[in-house]
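User: Could you write out the 3D structure of this protein bound to dioxothiomolybdenum(VI) ion? I've included everything you need below.
Assistant: Certainly. Input first, then the structure.
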Amino acid sequence: MTRHLKMDTPATARLLDQLPSRLTGTPMDRPDGPKKVSGTATYAHEWQIEGKTFGVLVRAPISKGKLVRIDKSSIEGLPGILGVFSDDRFLRNPAQGTANEAPIQGVSEISYFGQPIALVVAETFEQARHGAHMLELVCEADTDGVYDPEASNLSPEQPEDDQLDQGDLDKAMAEAAFTVDSTYRTPNHNSAAMEPHCSIASWEGDQLTLHGSYQMVKYNVNELADSLGVEPEKVRILSPFVGGGFGSKLGIAPEAVAAAIAAKEIGRPVCVTLTRQQVFENVMRRSESRQRLRLAADETGKLTGLGHECLVSNLPGESFHEPVIQATHFIYGGENRRLSIEVARLNRMCAGSVRAPGEAIGMQVLENAMDELAHVSGIDPVELRKGNIPEIHPEEDMPYSSRPFAAALDEGAKRFGWDKRNPEPGKQRDGEWLIGMGMAAAARVNMLMESKARVKLIDDGTAIVETDMTDIGTGTYAILTQLCCDMLGLAPEQVDTRLGDSNFPKASGSGGSVGASSSGSSVYLACQDIRGELARRLGCDEDELQLNDGKASGGGKEVSLIELLAGETIEGEGHIEPGETMEKVQQATYGSYFAEVAVNAVTGEARVRRMLGVFGAGRILNHKTARSQCLGGMTWGIGMALHEAMEFDPRDGHVVNNDLAEYHVPVNLDVPQLEVVLLEERDDWASPIQAKGIGELGLCGAGAAVTNAIFNATGVRVREYPATLDKIL
Ligand code: MOS
């Protein structure tokens, strides 16, 4: 049996609000939590596999040119060395979650510093590392590498789909009562997931098993099979625990392909784990950006024009570019619009999805510009935003689905004590500290992705959930368990949720904030499938069926679930597909951030004192894990505002700060008590469970609340992120 739903029309029933068991939404602890804190959750590197060998990637020592020769004899005779592998197939760049998208660049063509070009395999990790260090390479360097996206001799590409010219922005700017025309720059960011990328490949005949750390197993199987030139059926990926991804594990990385090729050759399992430096050099970066914001408003602050023109970068030939203007399209009105993205082609590592691609930096800068407009117009920043919430989509004839934007602004202002803010900068002091308050809006597009799950209701009245969905620290184990419990009337200890095995039904995976609502919907449908069968057995309508506490009732009858199962296992399959609801309405999630920042008048050091985020993302499936996502997003927002930046050597484009000592992320002392408020919302257009994505929302504008507070504290508007003290003083 399969219960299939293509989301062509909004949901008409809110079953989860009518069930006797209401675990969904509660802050239930993660069922996988005890395993994680006791070290028994097995992460990719930790699998004990008989005969395991170790591979270390060798990186290009130049940033553009040719690899002429690898002198394998240079490490012959070193202890433990089992082989040196170099193959064009390694060089498939990390794809964007879909197969066949990324170009394969031969190993002989070097296009960025640190590009993986070979793998040295040895009996131990140390031997392999030594071999990789000693291996002699002959390279021919070109002198025409390009590293600066704003270099005057570059002509960036203009992707057709990202050029919007509506009305006449120049005229709107000329006629406006208030204008802003500012250019901001944001630096490159690294996902810096706590668990470095790792793959252990082992073959049995022509069957490959890869223990890896990946976000989207269904796509990763295809990508790996495609890279190796084998059928996807021959590849199994296991990724039950993932120590953070933030986009860097959406697509397979070179280590997976290299491990698979080497393991096949030497006939033993090969484990390749990236070092932290390799994560910084080989895994995708979030592109830096230059963003010019033009806002034109009438005397009431209503936008008449909105310009958001961006320059980002990537390697030559890569199809991805940071979708900086994604939320600018729908969040505010203004009929004269110029939104565009240009892409500079550089010899720096691949740019790709890093948490909340697009909105993370796009909303941050748009919300800085809105703060500038509030300042020049004298209109309160909260009121300015509320006054610019459009009735219908400003670019397309399309309404919005549930949109608690104004509610999030009001709720945040009230809870934060926004009325105590002095709009005049530099007026509040606490000893040598200047104090300021700032706010920003949050917005992120919402999507649904195809997802499948299987639920087995076993004859003893317990259930197993199976899907190749992943839990990248986000709480998938918890929410899928909760949904299954409610739908089948079971307790959490009666449900065993199994994830991250490509042999299970193919799920959305974790990315783009689609995982919870998509995979949750598939489990919901699989359970509905089972409910249909139980209702049939009981002789009642499915609508009447009540499952609670191990009992089934309906149509005036009540029996124990075990009796109804009669020694059999009922298997239900759920299959959700996106449909027309994604095209008919603009679906998005919204929120607001409020921050109080202290800036030292002597040193320029900025310290966030408190921060609040209020978010609406449809039905919240678990208040604890959803809140944690928002805390993580806001923490990253603080990092983006004050600390984080990848620095590239202007001479050869190599990453200078390639570890967590030099790439600064916020630490405990940088993060005050954060407060998160989740609004009650149901979005029937989004999914049959009325949930939307929340994972990335907490980052979509967060940094702007901090830098807007710095302006309020000091009168200094930092337009080059991060706002380090040298820029504030
Ligand atoms: Mo996300 S950057 O789509 O994992």
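Residues 364 and 433 are 25 Å apart (CA to CA).
User: Perfect, thank you.
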